[in-house]
Amino acid sequence: MDDTRQAPRLPSPDSWDRASTDETPFTADALLPRRFTNDMDIEFARIAEDTRLSSEAGPSDLAGELARRNCTEVVVGVYVEQPGPHATPENPVYVSVQVFAFPDVATAQDAHKYLGDEGGSWRLTMWSDRDGGGLAPSLGKVYRSYRWRYSWRVHRYLTVALAYRADLTNDGSIGPWLAAAARRAAVSTGPQNHHG
User: Fold this and answer.
1) H or E element that contains 52
2) How far from each other are the two terminal CA atoms of the chain, in whole angstroms?
3) 32: helix, coil or strand?
4) Which of 3, 13, 137, 177 has its CA 20 to 30 A from that of 97?
5) Tell me: the pLDDT tens digits for 174-196?
6) In this structure, are residues 151 and 100 in contact, taking their beta carbons and an 8 Å threshold?
């Protein structure tokens, strides 16, 4: 009888691909960092967060597409640029982040294509912090300002980050700052923030 012992095998990297093996709570604290620093050394802090129904993520056709992919809730966070040597404190950059969870990676990839290639994320609700805490949909003026979108998928989670400046400028020269903020906000989210 062979009694040689084998070292325990590490979990398969695709174990995250199944909802049944993913124990990350679907909460802001599990999926969103409290702070992040973008590639321009500008720090951002989370100032509001919540879990909302996916029907609040955008207009009815977009909400219908999310429901068809079995996405019922969305984790939402709002970040604001912090004062510093490279920041613009008089007109800080805001980033509205939404994290969607899908049953598996294939569905998340399909949703990523829909929200990216087909432009669905431009119709996503842009959230802002409201007085007294909590979240509120941003006013329509934000959609007319210059803004930057970045989407990111890790495992079955899809994140879409939308960045804009507080003065709602239409000056395209702000593009690199918004791009850096949206990208870092998106790639900083996901189950790696869960330390439970």
Assistant:
1) strand 43-53
2) 41
3) coil
4) 13
5) 999 999 999 999 999 988 888 76
6) no
Is residue 48 within 8 Å of residue 77, measured between CB atoms? yes
Residue 168: count other Cβ atoms within 10 Å of its Cβ: 17
Q: Which of the 8 DSSP states describes residue 131?
A: T
The structure tokens listed for 99 are 């994290």
Q: In whole angstroms, what separates CA 38 from the centre of its chain?
A: 15
Task: Record the pTM.
Answer: 0.86
Tokens 């007085």 belong to 131
Tokens 């999926």 -> residue: 31
Q: Which ranges of the chain would DSSP assign to H, the alpha helix?
A: 28-31, 60-68, 105-117, 141-144, 175-187
Nearest to 48 by CA among 136, 177, 159, 123: 136
